[in-house]
Amino acid sequence: QVQLVESGGGLVQAGDSLRLSCAASGRTFSGYTMGWFRQAPGQEREFVAAISWSEGSTYYADSVKGRFTISRDNAKNTVYLQMNSLKPEDTALYYCAATSFRVYGVIKDWTNYAYWGQGTQVTVSS
Predict the structure, then answer these.
(1) Within its chain, how far is the Cα of 88 from the centroid?
(2) Beta-sheet pairing, 10-13 with 18-25
(3) Are residues 6 and 118 in contact, defined by beta-carbon separation less than 8 angstroms?
(4) Does the N terminus or the C terminus of the chain have fewer Cβ atoms within 10 A?
(5) What is the Cα–Cα distance from 49 to 34, expressed in whole angstroms?
């Protein structure tokens, strides 16, 4: 049974940093793309960042480029999202997800992800 378990969310002030973790288990994710999405109340789920498990290629939404960094630790089967210079508009429930697709135009779309974590809340106060 595939499990994605996020952790690391919390309440921080604008300008602070947080690191989210996503522990993956239940299958081999080699060849998969791991993504981070977020959803604020009343908003659609939006793409944040993604990384190809095998090659380590990374992709970012324009809104987080230069502030967020996605990485993975193959030995620990864990994906990370380092979030720096946080803004109030980054406040959302952050989800980790996995997809077998690799094309950027496809991996930006949350509907193409087969596996999801339960989410971790990030709240940034001004």
Answers:
(1) 18
(2) unpaired
(3) yes
(4) N
(5) 9
Q: List beta partners, residue 20.
A: 81
What distance in Å separates the CA atoms of residue 13 and residue 123, rounded to the nearest whole number? Answer: 8
Q: Compute the distance between CA of residue 51 and CA of residue 72 in angstroms, rounded to an integer.
A: 8
In the chain, the percentage of residues whose pLDDT exceeds 90 is 90
pLDDT at residue number 9: 97
pLDDT per position as a tens digit, 99-121 = 999 998 899 999 999 999 999 99
Q: Bridge-partner residues for 105, per DSSP?
A: none
Render pLDDT for 45-61 as a digit per residue (tens, 0 to 9).
999 999 999 999 999 99
| Cα–Cα distance measured from residue 18 to residue 38, given in angstroms and rounded to the nearest whole number | 14
Read off the tokens for 5.
Answer: 């378990």
Residue 112 has which token pair?
Answer: 């193409």
Question: In this structure, is the dihedral angle defined by the CA atoms of residues 126, 69, 20 and 59, taken in order, positive or negative?
Answer: positive
